[in-house]
Amino acid sequence: MMHLTYNRRNMLADGVAEAANAGLSDFGRAAIAEMNRAGVIVDVAHTGWRSSLEAAKASAKPMVASHTTVAALHRHIRAKPDEVIRAIADTGGYVGICCVPAFLGGTGDITAMLDHIDYVVKHFGAEQAAIGTDVVYSSRNANREWEKVPKRGPSRQSFEQLWPPDAFAGYPRLDDSMAWTNWPLFTVGMVQRGHSDADIQKILGGNVLRVARAALGEGA
Predict the structure, then answer these.
(1) Residue 179 carries which DSSP code?
(2) Which of 6, 25, 39, 44 fits 52 for a cystine, CB–CB 3.0-4.6 Å?
(3) Bridge partner residues of 129 (DSSP)
(4) What's the CA gap between 51 and 12, in Å, rounded?
(5) pLDDT in tens, 144-200
(6) Domains present along the chain, CATH in parentheses
(7) How far apart are CA 96 and CA 167, in angstroms?
(8) Distance in angstroms (rounded) separating the CA atoms of residues 27 and 105
(9) What's the predicted TM-score (pTM) here?
(10) Greatest pairwise CA separation for the chain in angstroms
(11) Do 198 and 123 touch, CB atoms closer than 8 A?
């Protein structure tokens, strides 16, 4: 799996933080064709809306937005509008709903996350829904290890400066409650909301495996 962009513009496409919202370049289309050939899943989680839409139309294999949210529920640059979700669904891919409160909006907790999952299931089908937490464990030694990385010279302004304000900054309760370690609670929440066992299995991992096999071959 490979991102086309990481928030900013590159030679392939525009990232989500680019206000221009331009589409794929010719090189981007060629890269997608090569990814399809080589068995690399196209991921547009950090790619702009127009570029994501054009990538879905260009990809001959299922592609994904591995960790994102639904713009119809909370309009954020890291979310995807219905048009893009539909295009991804039409490839046979999936949209993974993440655990970042600022991207989810609403209450910013598991309830909000489940609302986004429900929306994808209702409007696009359980086959197109997944969980892509985007919250990972960091080692207690992480800062010490980062200090070993050689310092780089001057660079352009960090992409974080382009990010919308985070209404949930400074709320550790939400950070804790949305950690990937609470995965069992995501399952319980879907059960409580009436999703079938078969659909829950797809959302928890079945759809990810299906897309991986489509990219890598049935022997994967």
Answers:
(1) S
(2) 44
(3) 95
(4) 9
(5) 998 999 988 777 777 777 788 888 887 777 777 787 788 899 999 999 999 999 999
(6) 2-137+159-216 (3.20.20.140)
(7) 22
(8) 35
(9) 0.91
(10) 53
(11) no
